[in-house]
Design goal:
The protein is an alpha/beta fold and 354 residues long. The chain has 13 helices and twelve strands. The chain has helices spanning 25-31, 45-59, 77-89, 104-116, 130-136, 174-191, 193-207, 211-231, 246-256, 263-281, 286-298, 312-319, 347-353; strands at 3-6, 13-18, 39-44, 63-68, 97-102, 122-127, 141-146, 149-156, 161-165, 324-325, 328-336, 339-346. The strands form three sheets. Strands 1-2-9-6-5-3-4 form a seven-stranded mixed beta sheet, with helices on both faces. It has a three-stranded antiparallel beta sheet with strand order 10-11-12. Helix 3 packs across helix 4, helix 5 (130-136) packs parallel to helix 6 (174-191) and helix 9 crosses helix 12 (312-319). The radius of gyration is 19 Å and the shape is globular.
Length: 354
């Protein structure tokens, strides 16, 4: 079982990766030295039906379950208010623990609820999708969406532990599994060119969900993210490179209606657009751009913006991007595979090439 520690000065915590970890969940919570007067598992109806019962049995009488509908639409003010009401009904206090059991939506939603209820109660991330295991569970970003944009209301709030059970990846629908590969490919693009080489070779085994390959994928991705987060927890510099592909991706998710594109699908398209911008404004070679687009396609992810994408809704969402600076956006570009940089591009330059 690979494990490592995220060494943040104010909130260090352990990351555990392996097959069958949910069967050892109570043991791992105890190792995290959590008081756990009360524990509430927050999950969606789909994941809860698969995994909640054995966790509740392990955790005992002081554990409760709160479920929400699956999908991006649950990252809303209305669902957040529902969680607050349930926390109050369950009489959670500051010694209580919130377990976010699910994908990125649950991690963001339950994480923000934990960050803000009683000004903060302990959070444990138990990601069950590839996207959450390789990316969103680590780093402390929690958020909900507004109609005008994705993740516009949120907080940095670190978990007390991350427990990633690779076995949960075997039950994912194919589309949900593949979307997580977008974030995996992103790490190779921005920090680790040899990872791109390995992914090109190992993609058949990854798509077959071989446990050994999946463990490598999750561990290598999370170690990259841990390095970036420990050097820039609040996204004031280096951490911005993790947004590669996300500027167009978030705008596409918002403009198309949350849920029509999965997050990873939108990011995959966004990475191809960012690669095109990188060729014009950062010197990325055509060969590197083609390799990246080819790997994204081999992962079964989309690579093209939809017809009619330059809609009023899309352009509005782009202008509401969190990285907006005046009349432009701090864009994450590549000058070569494995190396990212920031360039402020005004909207005319972006749209001229995208």
């Amino acid at each position: 079982m690979p494990s490592f520690r995220v060494e943040l000065p104010a909130s260090p915590h352990d990351v555990h990766i392996g097959v069958g970890l949910l069967a050892r969940f109570n043991e791992m919570l105890s190792a995290a030295r959590l008081d756990r007067r009360r524990t509430v598992i927050v999950t969606d109806e789909t994941v809860g039906g698969q995994y909640a019962a054995p966790l509740l049995e392990q955790l005992g009488a002081r554990a409760s379950l709160v479920t929400v509908p699956p999908g991006e639409n649950s990252k809303s003010l209305a669902t957040l208010a529902y969680l607050y009401e349930q926390f109050a009904r369950l009489e959670l206090d500051r010694s209580s623990v919130v377990v976010a059991l699910g994908g990125g939506v649950i991690g963001d939603l339950a994480g923000f609820a934990a960050a803000t209820y009683l000004r903060g109660i302990a959070l444990v991330q138990a990601p069950t999708t590839l996207l959450a295991q390789v990316d969103s569970a680590l780093g402390g970003k929690t958020a909900i969406n507004l109609p005008s944009g994705k993740n516009l209301v949120g907080a940095f709030y670190q978990p007390r532990a991350i427990i990633a059970d690779i076995a949960t990846l075997t039950t994912l629908p194919e589309r949900t599994f593949r979307e997580g590969l977008a974030e995996v490919i992103k790490y190779g693009a921005i920090r680790d060119a040899p990872f791109i080489d390995w992914l090109e070779t190992a993609m058949p085994q990854i798509l077959a969900r071989d446990p050994e390959h999946l463990t490598t994928v999750v561990e290598r991705s999370l170690r990259h993210k841990a390095y970036v987060v420990t050097n820039d927890e609040r996204e004031s510099g280096l951490r911005q490179i993790l947004n590669f592909g996300h500027t167009f991706g978030h705008a596409l998710e918002t403009a198309s209606g949350y849920g029509n594109y999965f997050h990873g699908e939108a990011v995959a398209i966004g990475m191809v657009v960012a690669s095109r911008l990188s060729r014009h404004y950062a010197g990325l070679s055509a060969d590197d751009a083609g390799r990246l687009a080819g790997l994204i396609a081999r992962a079964g992810l989309p690579t093209r913006m939809p017809d009619g994408w330059r809609s009023e809704e899309f352009l509005s969402a782009l202008r509401h991007d969190k990285k907006r600076a005046g009349e432009g956006i701090e864009f994450v570009l590549l000058d070569r595979l494995g190396h990212a940089l920031l360039r402020k591009l005004d909207f005319d330059r972006i749209l001229a090439v995208a």
